[in-house]
Amino acid sequence: MIALVVNGTRHDVDVPADKPLLWVLREDLNIVGPKFGCGVAACGACTVHVDGQAVRSCSLPVGEAAGKAVTTIEGLGNGRLHAVQRAWIEEQVPQCGYCQPGFIMATAALLRDKPRPTDADIDEALTNICRCGTYSAVRRAVHRAAAIIGGAS
Ligand code: FES
Ligand code: FES
């Protein structure tokens, strides 16, 4: 049994310790915001936070998340829209939407570390892949989220 705390709720899951966290979230806990894209830590669609750090959950054995705080997009705003989600809506970023939870989770982690990121910081931190090509809208939304968090709008 592995004890996981996801979005503030404790779950005891009967799974092998090497099962990827993404599959435990999706299959065992029915938390489907994190998406499967590549399965090899390349695309970022599966990004969640583990103890506040952005992590590609397709490549993290669930045993390594035991006892740590896991946050998915479902819990990011704690019942409300997080500033990053608000910025995403205001900038109308998503196209098909599939990759967007990963971008939003990566952005929230970035802004916690760097409240005013430059374009270069954004390019370095957000290595996620979007097949719809929303990259320029993502960049605008990151700056807007930084402004919302900083109280500029
Ligand atoms: S599915 Fe995890 S990085 Fe692509
Ligand atoms: S919005 Fe479609 S893959 Fe990114």
Automatic annotation (TrEMBL):
InterPro entries membership: 2Fe-2S-bd, 2Fe-2S-bd_dom_sf, 2Fe-2S_ferredoxin-like_sf, 2Fe-2S_ferredoxin-type, 2Fe2S_fd_BS, Beta-grasp_dom_sf, Diverse_Oxidoreductases
KW Secreted (keyword) present: no
Location of the 2Fe-2S ferredoxin-type domain: 1-76
Gene Ontology MF terms in the entry: 2 iron, 2 sulfur cluster binding; metal ion binding; oxidoreductase activity
Keywords, comma-separated and alphabetical: 2Fe-2S, Iron, Iron-sulfur, Metal-binding, Oxidoreductase
Keyword S-adenosyl-L-methionine: no
Top-rank lineage group of the source organism: Bacteria
The name this protein goes by in its record: Isoquinoline 1-oxidoreductase, alpha subunit
